[in-house]
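Hi there,

I know you've been waiting on this one. I reran it after we fixed the sequence typo, so this is the corrected version. Both the input and the resulting structure follow.
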Amino acid sequence: WDLHLKGAGKTPYSRMGDGRAVLRSSIREFLASEHLHALGIPTSRALCVTSSQTPVYRERQERGAMLLRLAPSHVRFGHFEFFYYTRQHDALRQLLDHVIACHFPDCLEHPEPYRSFFRQVLERTAGMIARWQAYGFCHGVMNTDNMSILGITFDFGPYAFLDDFDARFICNHSDDTGRYSFENQVPIAHWNLAALAQALTPFVEVGALRESMDLFLPLYEAQWLALMRGRLGFVQADDGDQALIQDLLKLMQGSAVDYTRFFRELGDSPAEQALSRLREDFVDLQGFDRWAQTYRQRSEREGTDQAARQTRMQAANPKYILRNYLAQQAIEAAEQGDYEPVRELHAVLSRPFDEQPGMERYAQRPPEWGKHLEISCSS
């Protein structure tokens, strides 16, 4: 494991920055990375947060803090781009050889190890993005310097999980164009992989890189479809599953349907009963009724009993998700010296699929103010 003290002060790479972190951002990364791990989403980890009385200046004066972050490697796409664009090809080869030896040793058995390396990075990235999209995670700043070579979620800033489903949701209040909106995460990941491929052109034939790039969308779509199929309680594949899922998301859009609660509640009771209750959340009632009829027919073809269906769906659909307002409430307490809300929230989010008696308040719909918090890069 690589250990990284985030916020420990200036380094040779701080440029014009102070190298510091604030308590707010450190707690947010701590909670998010550990929660993603519990959800089964590849991520860096966070061991602890250390606070201090040192003032740090961002949008306002805040308390300083330091996060001890862990990952098998902190190498990013941007490292390869740096050596490529500064024409340091010997150093680029050295970096490639080091990363392959440490983290992709099976590539050494391939007749073209660098080509095999890129293919594996692409596969891992497709899997990570599929999980982001399936569970409603928005990263917020997907530049190539925030993309791990290992395909793990990295460098948390203005992230958010979807409350109401909105494909156009933007979690970073400074992202005026929506470049990193929820629906753009897939094309941006594809673009970032193309940037990495460009950096590898001194060592891998362009045609081979393009062949790998062509695999990204099919790989992503297959994994996303499998995850969403599981969220709906299906094990078997059906030709109509993709249309069923897309139709549901279209109905959710604009209806203020809570993304996490919908799937959890769909599996908490028999399908007929759950659909009757969930119908109240939709604006297009006729459209939902048509979807519900198709879903019932699809569930009947699956042919499993209700107990097995419920167990399967509860294992795929979290009851608890890290909502921005929950993080904000814990942060405000910590800034006053009370860390118990952070510890309790961390404990709840570490078991997101489990029923946790006494903790139901963490699974409630967010208040309206909680859906509209402005999150910045320094968050």
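Quick highlight: Residues 113-135 form the longest helix (23 residues).

Best,
R. S.
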